[in-house]
Design a protein that fits this description.
The complex is a heterotrimer. By secondary structure, chain A is mainly α. Chain A has one domain: Orthogonal Bundle (MetI-like fold), CATH 1.10.3720. Chain A contains 13 helices and no strands. Chain C is an alpha/beta fold. In chain C, 41% of the residues lie in helices and 24% in strands. In chain C, helix 2 links the parallel strand 1 and strand 2. The longest helix of chain C has 27 residues. Classes of the chains: A mainly alpha, B mainly alpha, C alpha/beta. Chains A and B meet through helix 1, helix 4, helix 5, helix 6 and helix 7 of A and helix 1, helix 3, helix 4, helix 5 and helix 6 of B.
């Protein structure tokens, strides 16, 4: 009887593996099969010559270039807001907070991490309306508000990875500098953070991936289907994941649908590349830290 | 660095942490304030029970709550055995480089964007479900759940694998010593001891499933009724927010999406508390 | 003979002198301008808006025009709040809406709302009673209205949609729409959904109809540009662009552009009936 159970479990686990891998490969394969033909410079730049588009001399119509620039700007801004705040909060939690405060703050960060992204988007929109009414009528859902909302979305990830990376350091690493007379802050800045850089950086890269792929937050805070390259922080913008969502429902002919597939492939590649980068950095930095330092 | 700069920087760290926590509270506060007109007329509980028919004055989110629960729970019915099986595959059944390769593949799967699942769902899965079951338009609870399964499984699998690894090796050596197989060690020692971790993973995955917007928005049909069967079109709270967002800001309709937001927030808090309680239980187990 | 050839030469000279000037005038208004125009609202207007924006931005890269959808409700709300410069609506505004937000209304086209089914569906004509019963959920199978033995899948638009408002009022006589209907967020998306579902029925702007969907005659009248123009097709509505207060500067030029010959040509190309 026991033997049968064990055999069943073994076969079940193999079946599950096949189902999962099969399903995901079907999804990715389907994208590539339908979108492969549309990949190329015209997908990104439309009818405009690439050099003119890159130097912003001419606008790109019917190309993904504005959406890619929009996503890029979003990610860069969101990371600019989130990384300093997140690392500072993480350092505080790991090094300075007492146990009770730590428990309370950890609860809040867990809630933040678990919030549905659309609720964060709703918050961003509500904040934009609030600012519009109280301060300046020029503020409305735009690149700035979206990047702030995205920063709020990924803040808990960065905080948590920083906290875990710092807490994971062995006691010897923590004590050495202090025993030689360094202050707490000097210890953190010059010893602990550099040693836990692997964890922190891979956390940042995963946060970048999250910003690049998120759609729900930007839908409520300023992304539009068509506007060209964003001109300022207070302007509307396009983004790659929103383009995919928009095209999936509102394509007018099979050519536009093919650009949707192409955009999906590009987005998928960006996210996977970021993931591989995080992995490579983790391996590389630990190699340097352990063997070459 | 002088004393004052040090103190200054420390205060900065302190402020960042508390500001972030404050923002979380502010979020709830915002939604409460903006949704207040809806509650002021004493409709709080009726919101949770009424159907959604704005032109009749009903702003109830009951159909959406039912839709969210239906889609999330169905996806967990699919995802839990699937993830457990895959975790067993990675931890026990396969060895050496296949195990590492599979784990890497699952790690890469966590990076696939949600919108991709929704996109492929519309063009591949919806026609399949429509033709195969010959009922409904293919945009239904079942389709959304299937895609959601693919979304939440990789994270759950990794979590289960970590739980299995955390069980101390010494617990299971006795089984091997008396001639048992790896699978026997797994079934009789590792699995019972990692239950709290498994429950935590399950809870986190439910949280992810409840909070997802795009898959439900793109492939569940968005009809405003509580689904009667898995082949019925349904709408989740998250998709509802995205859809009603386009309505007039001053109207009570719009205020209702703040009610949805609050409901989701409270649900998240509940799940986080549940995970913490299970975590304490796990610490007791490990002793 | 000589007078005739002189007359022809004179006319030719006049055309050469004033012709190019007349043809180039429409976009010239945007030369040397700088700034941003934000447009949101009705989804039926989007093809026209996009074409106009492409031409203007192509001529003058310093102008940025952003176009969002969302439905007529969004157009009113965002124009009224000052969040966008131009709010498009696919239905007439009520006096309340105009006075509450201080909106200026510009009607630049007439459009119809047509019932559409998948091209594979043989049903091509429905009476109003049948339509009301179908959307209320009372008729649930295509065979009851002359099609195959298949269930009917309903598709309807979101609450903010002007297209939905017009359809509900004029085609359904304010009848119920069954809660089992699938919700679609724009005209383009409705077209996409119907073209993929062989058993679906929905409604879409007449200007958006192409080979991917098949229009259904309503009470015997085919929906087309012709019947809408002649007033025969009853489910018709105007396409409006609204601004908060009088439009000024770049926004005024954009709206004026819609009423120029070039603008009217774009509107006709996209399948609507231009209005002077």
């Amino acid at each position: 009887m026991r033997r049968v159970l064990e055999q069943v479990v073994v076969h079940f686990s193999r079946l599950c593996g096949i189902i999962l891998l099969g399903a995901v490969l079907t999804v990715i394969g389907y994208l590539f099969v339908h979108g492969w033909s549309s990949l190329g410079l015209s997908l990104i730049f439309g009818a405009t010559p690439p050099l003119d588009a890159l130097l912003m001399k001419r606008n790109v119509f019917n190309g993904l270039f504005p959406a890619m620039i929009g996503t890029l700007s979003l990610v860069v801004l969101a990371v600019c807001w989130a990384v300093p705040a997140g690392m500072a909060a993480g350092i505080y939690l790991a090094e300075y907070a007492g146990p009770k405060i730590k428990a309370v703050l950890n609860l809040f960060f867990d809630i933040m991490a678990g919030l549905p992204s659309i609720v964060v988007g709703l918050f961003g929109f509500a904040a934009a309306v609030f600012l519009n009414r109280k301060f300046s009528g020029a503020i409305h859902p735009c690149l700035l508000i979206s990047s702030l909302a995205l920063a709020f979305l990924v803040l808990p990830y960065i905080t948590r990875t920083t906290q875990m990376a710092l807490e994971g350091l062995p006691l010897s690493a923590r004590m050495t500098a202090l025993s030689l007379g360094a202050t707490r802050l000097q210890n953190i800045v010059r010893v602990l953070v550099p040693q836990s850089l692997t964890g922190i950086v891979s956390g940042i890269i995963l946060a970048i991936g999250r910003c690049a792929e998120d759609t729900a937050v930007i839908m409520l805070t300023g992304v539009v289907a068509s506007t060209g390259v964003p001109r300022s922080l207070l302007s509307h913008y396009e983004a790659l994941p929103f383009y995919i969502y928009y095209i999936s429902a509102q394509y007018t002919d099979s050519e536009e649908l093919a650009t949707g597939y192409g955009a999906a492939i590009i987005l998928l590649c960006i996210c996977l590349v970021l993931f591989l980068l995080a992995f490579a950095i983790r391996k590389r930095i630990s190699y340097y830290a352990l063997y070459r330092a | 660095m002088s004393r004052t700069t040090e103190k200054g920087v420390e205060i900065l760290f302190f402020c960042s942490a508390f500001f972030s926590a404050f923002l979380t509270l502010a979020l709830f506060g915002f939604m409460l304030t903006l949704g207040l007109p809806l509650f002021a007329e004493g409709r709080f509980f009726s919101i949770l029970i009424q159907p959604w028919a704005p032109h009749l004055g009903h702003f109830g989110i009951h159909p959406m709550i039912a839709g969210t629960l239906a889609i999330s729970l169905l996806s967990m019915v699919f995802a839990f055995p699937l993830s457990l099986g895959c975790a067993i595959l990675i931890s026990v059944t396969s060895k050496g480089w296949t195990s590492r390769l599979l784990r890497k593949a699952v790690e890469m799967m966590t990076g696939i964007p949600t919108v991709i699942y929704g996109f492929v769902g519309i063009f591949l899965l919806v026609p399949l479900v429509r033709e195969f079951f010959a009922a409904g338009s293919g945009m239904c609870v079942l389709t959304a759940s299937l895609m959601l399964t693919l979304l939440v499984s990789p994270t759950m699998i990794l979590f289960f694998c970590d739980s299995f690894e955390r069980v101390p090796v010494s617990y299971g050596t006795a089984v091997l010593a008396v001639g048992g197989t790896e699978m026997q060690r797994f079934l009789h020692v590792t699995l019972p001891h990692s239950w709290p971790g498994i429950l935590i993973g399950f809870t986190l995955a439910i949280g992810r499933a409840l909070g997802d917007t795009l898959i439900a928005l793109m492939i569940a049909g968005n009809a405003v009724q509580a689904p009667g069967s898995i082949l019925d079109s349904a709408r989740t709270l998250t998709a509802h927010i995205a859809l009603v967002f386009a309505a007039d800001f001053e109207s009570l309709e719009f205020k209702a999406i703040f009610a949805c937001g609050m409901f989701l927030y409270l649900l998240t808090t509940l799940l986080v508390m549940a995970v913490r309680l299970l975590g304490c239980k796990r610490k007791r187990w490990a002793r | 003979m000589k007078t005739k050839s002189v007359a022809v030469c004179a006319v030719a000279l006049l055309v050469l002198a004033f012709g190019p000037g007349a043809f180039a005038s429409a976009l010239d208004a945007f030369k040397g301008e700088k700034g941003e125009i934000k447009i949101a609202g009705g989804t039926a207007h989007i093809p026209v808006m996009k074409e106009a924006a492409d031409r203007i931005m192509g001529m003058n890269p310093d102008i940025q025009i952003s176009i969002a959808g969302g439905g007529s409700g969004v157009g009113i709300k965002q124009a009224g709040e000052g969040l966008v410069d131009i709010g498009n609506t696919g239905r007439a505004l009520s006096d309340d809406e105009i006075s509450q937000h201080g909106l200026q209304v510009f009607k630049w086209a007439v459009d119809g709302v047509a019932i559409v089914v998948n091209p594979a569906n043989p049903v091509r004509a429905l009476s109003q009673d049948q339509l009301i019963a179908i959307f209320a959920g009372r008729i649930a199978n295509w065979k009851e209205v002359g099609g195959g033995d298949q269930r009917i899948n309903l598709y309807t638009r979101d609450e903010a949609s002007g297209t939905r408002e017009v359809f509900w009022e004029k085609a359904l006589n304010k009848g119920d729409i069954a809660p089992t209907a699938n919700f679609i967020v724009s005209n383009g998306a409705m077209k996409g959904a119907i073209s993929q579902d062989p058993y679906g029925i929905g409604y879409v702007s007449v200007g958006h109809i192409d080979e991917s969907v098949a229009p259904v005659a309503f009470n015997g009248i085919e929906p087309s540009m012709q019947t809408v123009k002649e007033g025969k097709y009853p489910i018709a509505r105007g396409l409006y662009s609204n601004t908060r207060g009088e439009p000024a500067g770049l926004v005024k030029k954009f709206i004026d552009y819609l009423f120029t010959e070039e603008g009217q040509q774009i509107i006709a190309e996209k399948g609507f009936i231009p209005v002077q």
